[in-house]
Amino acid sequence: MNAFADRLAEAVRRDGPLCVGIDPRFDMLPASYRKFPPGVAIEAFSLKVLELVRPFAGVVKPQAAFFERLGPEGMSAMQSVMWRATELGFVTILDAKRGDIASTATAYAEAAFGEDVWNADALTVNPYLGADAVEPFVNEARKSTPPRGLFVLVRTSNPGGGLFQNALADGVPLYRRVGAAVADWNDGGLGDCGLGDVGAVVGATHPQELAELRAALPRVWFLVPGYGAQGGTAADVRAGFLPNGLGAVVNSSRGVVFPFAPDDADWEAKIVAAAQRAQAELRGPL
Amino acid sequence: MNAFADRLAEAVRRDGPLCVGIDPRFDMLPASYRKFPPGVAIEAFSLKVLELVRPFAGVVKPQAAFFERLGPEGMSAMQSVMWRATELGFVTILDAKRGDIASTATAYAEAAFGEDVWNADALTVNPYLGADAVEPFVNEARKSTPPRGLFVLVRTSNPGGGLFQNALADGVPLYRRVGAAVADWNDGGLGDCGLGDVGAVVGATHPQELAELRAALPRVWFLVPGYGAQGGTAADVRAGFLPNGLGAVVNSSRGVVFPFAPDDADWEAKIVAAAQRAQAELRGPL
Questions:
Q1: Which of A144, A148, A169, B9 lies 20 to 30 angstroms, CA to CA, from B140?
Q2: Residue ranges of chain B with pLDDT lower than 70?
Q3: pTM
């Protein structure tokens, strides 16, 4: 039950597969928050969002770039948001897309999973540097208490994601090779739910490839971005799930967190409504 | 003369092609520094290294992972090191291997190049997400004052780097496709020196591929890791240079920064000697 895969399964069974992406952009904050210094403002807003969406999602995905944009103060805000999310019972995915080799990869993993640093339940990682660059992340995830997880970029949701990911080698697109490597790592960390600790990022904007990967990787958790603001629909993401309703968490960032104009007085109610709608929509097909 | 490529050319002409990698690991610091809290210790040590190596190198490459490992305090140390390096006249390459899409990529680039954030002259980026993920970095680099540069991962120095990078599609390895994309971006930002602002990371540990890429990408700056502690020699990196002695900066991290045991009293002299030796060795063949 402490396995990462099982903790994620528990969250999805309880609250559905919605993952709320925390991408705080100062310019889009409610007017009352834009009066504060940017670091304070994005921290306070993100903490408020965590409370508002908690009834509708069991997973959150803070995006490191929007915190790093504000320098050390932003990183301090990120730490506060990560810790509060854990306290509220969310499974946390730190979306930092890290990737490096050997002891450098280990340092990133120690930062991601360290209880005194970001304390993430899972981290997104980039596979371009190869197996010996992903393995230090896998090792650190498994050494942590409780064990943590990874989501490796396989097929990303952006329109140009196929430029290298779809390059065909011996008739097999690169992303399928990356997917096969993910499955190998993942099989070393299966939980009681039958899924493992090395997941794959697969965009909702490529439903055909999502379906193929679901069939090819039956024990791999998928993190599915691209639903909502990027154009993916609830029907598009259906192919990412296993028959038992597990296997995927579906991220919505702007669609849930910024469904209001900066001067709207009722922004809290709009976030609650957007989260509720996304939860219902994603639970519907299952 | 303000073009990134020209600022880098000026540094290489003046001080040679050595780039010193700043990878501060608390456990390896001199005994006198390990008495301080980790964030203070790695900041003070890194600032000292900048002063010690300044006569022997015009380029430094702080590694974000080792700062992030210490959380917000570590990021504060990184900011201090980046700013001081600029003040000392170094061209700074922030080795963070960032990669994301659209406005998220822009946020990372704003962090890297923002004068109030990391203020890097150049950033390393990961190409796996495709062209529309690299272009926001290119746009931000060119919008900055002075203009900044990028180094895109093409062929990394780790033993397993070929797993995906060497995947053959239509007889062409993936890293050559990435290299071709780099050349296209780079040609939009050429300086007076004839080189451009979108460079390539090419490991010293693959001298044959380094030579091929040098021939294929005559206007692209190379950042060459893997010299020194990772096994690449001065002879191995020779193929990365153009006949005029420009075209490559060669990174050494541990070999220059940690040539001592933690209890050595003469650690400063050992860093100076290591930097001097590396400068002479890399200038020798040119």
A1: B9
A2: 1, 285-286
A3: 0.98
Cα–Cα distance, B257 to B56 (Å, whole number): 13
pLDDT of amino acid B19 = 98
Chain B within 8 Å of A3 (Cβ-Cβ)?
no
- Looking at residue B83, its pLDDT comes to 98
Taken as a whole, chain B contains a residue count of: 286
The answer to whether the CB atoms of A98 and B65 lie below 8 A apart is yes
Q: Which CATH architecture has domain A4-283?
A: Alpha-Beta Barrel (3.20)
Neighbouring-strand partners of residue B248: B222
* Of residues A283, A285, A284, the one with CA closest to residue A57: A283
Residues in A 146-205 with any Cβ partner in B closer than 8 A: 153, 156-165, 167-170, 174, 177-178, 181
Say what the pLDDT of residue A106 is: 98
Nearest residue of chain A to residue B203 (CA atoms): A129
Q: What are phi and psi of B259, to 5 degrees?
A: -90, 20
**Under 8 Å CB-to-CB from A53, ≥6 apart: which residues?**
A20, A60, A256, A271, A272, A275
Structure tokens at B215: 């021939």
Q: Name residues of chain A where pLDDT drops below 70.
A: 1, 285-286
Query: What's the distance, CA B92 to chain centroid?
Result: 8
Residue-level pLDDT at A1: 52
Residue A47: which of A9, A11, A13, A86 has the closest Cα? Answer: A86
Residue-level pLDDT at B145: 96
Tens of pLDDT, residue by residue over A80-109, are 999 999 999 999 999 999 999 999 999 999
Q: Which two tokens stand for residue B123?
A: 């950033």
Give the tokens for residue B233.
């020699």
d(CA B82, CA B120): 7
B98/A103 touch (CB, cutoff 8 Å), yes or no: no
Nearest CA in chain B to A125: B99
